[in-house]
Amino acid sequence: MLLHAISHRPGTSNAYTVSHRYAELRLRTGPDIQRVSVVYGDKYDWEHTRNKVAMRPMGSDDLFLYWRTTVHCPVRRLRYCFFIETKDESVWLTEEGLRVAAGENPQGLFDFPWLHQSDGLEIPDWIRDAVFYQIFPDRFANGDPSNDPEDLTPWHEQPTSHSLHGGDLEGIAQKLDYLCDLGINTIYLTPIFYAPSNHKYDTIDYFSIDPHFGSIETLQKLVSLCHQRGIRVVLDAVFNHIGWQSPQFQDAVLRGAESSYYNWFHFHDLPSGTRPRPTYDTFAYAPSMPKLNTQNKEVQEYLLNVATYWIEVADIDGWRFDVADEVDHEFWRKLRHRVRAVKPTAYILGEIVHQAEPWLRGDQFDGVMNYPLTEALTAWLTGKGSAASFANRITQLHFDYSRPALEGCLNLLDSHDTPRLLSQLGGNRPLLKLAAVILLTLPGAPCIYYGDEVGMEGGPDPDCRRAMIWDTASWDLNLLSWYKQLIALRLKHRALRRGDLAVVTLGEHLLGWSRQEENGDELLVLINRGAEPAPLTTAIPDGQWFDLLTGTIYQAHHEIPPSCALIMQRLTT
């Protein structure tokens, strides 16, 4: 038995509260393990409450098997251990380590002292049904030429790091029919607050809408129109840093330690300077973005008031926070409490590009931007990774995050910070269509970057921030129809939004997963990235399967065409 592969970490996604009566337990083992059971009970009445339940595999990768089960706890507490078996050996895993014998006495077992529902992550339920559309406001649509900047760049001219193209909030309002027709039900806007740049992550005033985008009244109108159409609106803010031109930072620079804002920042030396590097902490080493001291009580109150102000004034539905991993955890705990007190259904999303489990334990974020999934997907589709490595990464992410955290993550193919996927794929539209299937069939909220659905391309920033194409003659209408079909299928089939996931590698280029609900409803997704047809012999169970994308009926002796995806439902006889 590969004893060194066995791992369980209490207090993480390995053991978390599902409700006041249920806990989910997870275990990692080596691939040699055949069966795992959980022995559990009440430590104060072990003799009469001791119970045993089998765990089920939730997936595997190159090294490990991952197991899970949900345990019912009638007294809202439990002690537990794991009984792990191969064909010839068995061992117990307890809090004290691996043991030859255990389970007869609760002493030394893992302890879940009490199942507090408030300790579990509760995400807004609407997130599970959301389909996001990310908009970079300056580049989406110009609906009000009267607020255009003086140095306006022509709409379809190549963007630069400093160009302003005239997009605004009124332009978004005028395109809501387009978004509704696409099937979008949530809009995510990158920052719209007063700032000198085109991206607005160098905020001057968090309480003012940038005049090139409109006014508070324009935002209120946009949110109201969206809500009338069943569309929610999530805004973006950066609380890690502020703009160099902000009055707070300028006062601190001018007056130094005598400034009431001096401790809002992290100065290393006075007078402040920017060369060869800033003498104050910044985002990266960008002088224009001085880092805020979020452990300062005045800074905390200022930012917390920003977070609640726009919910109260404009009725927005949530926040995406930039560079969230560089802000202290305690601040995010305070923010969650403050925001949820104002709007219990508000969505709180963090930009964290790495493994983010510490932020997803129920006291900070509902989800994070799922860049690890993006990177694995891109690697597979560009030929830099195998189907197996992509499947492994999906499984690892699902083990690392609790189910609510996974459902609360924002899944994306690309964004304003990355090259557009179509450009990374060398313009290969069949592969982009496969990527869209992946995006819209995995757990988590799918997010479409504006223009991807009509075939927009773009390299690294600023090229990925080109102005939206509104000349329909330049649209890829086949691709647009594909996105519409996929979104409609996700919204129609609850299993694609809320079903359990099981991933399996079926060949060098063939990958599949099922999404199954507790009531038995199941959809099977198969993706052949290869240039040759792939046999379905091992991919689908016996019987007839109906492909929801094409209407074709498949059986095990059939093949899946090259560069093709199937979303199949079993036909009942």
Short description:
This protein has 573 residues and is α+β, with helices and mostly antiparallel strands. The protein has four domains: 3-119, Immunoglobulin-like, CATH 2.60.40.10; 131-239 and 294-470, Glycosidases (TIM Barrel, Alpha-Beta Barrel), CATH 3.20.20.80; 241-293, Oligo-1,6-glucosidase, Domain 2 (Oligo-1,6-glucosidase, domain 2); 498-570, Golgi alpha-mannosidase II (Immunoglobulin-like), CATH 2.60.40. It contains 14 helices and 28 strands.
Q: What name goes with the CATH superfamily of the largest domain?
A: Glycosidases
CATH class of the largest domain: Alpha Beta
Distance between the termini: 44 Å
Shape: globular
Helix content: 10-25%
The main β sheet shows up as:
8 strands, parallel
Question: Can you count the helices?
Answer: 14
Overall radius of gyration: 26 Å
CATH topology type of the largest domain: TIM Barrel
**Biggest sheet: strand arrangement:** 18-17-16-15-12-11-20-19
List keywords for this structure.
573 residues, 24% helix, Oligo-1,6-glucosidase, domain 2, 6-stranded antiparallel beta sheet, TIM Barrel, 23% strand, 4 domains, 8-stranded parallel beta sheet
Structure description:
The protein has 573 residues and is an alpha+beta fold. The protein folds into 4 domains: 3-119, Immunoglobulins (Immunoglobulin-like), CATH 2.60.40; 131-239 and 294-470, Glycosidases (TIM Barrel), CATH 3.20.20.80; 241-293, Oligo-1,6-glucosidase, Domain 2 (Oligo-1,6-glucosidase, domain 2); 498-570, Sandwich (Immunoglobulin-like). The protein is built from 14 helices and 28 strands. Helix 6 runs parallel beside helix 7 (329-342) and helix 8 (371-381) packs antiparallel against helix 9 (387-400). The longest helix is centred in the middle third of the chain and has 18 residues, at 297-314.
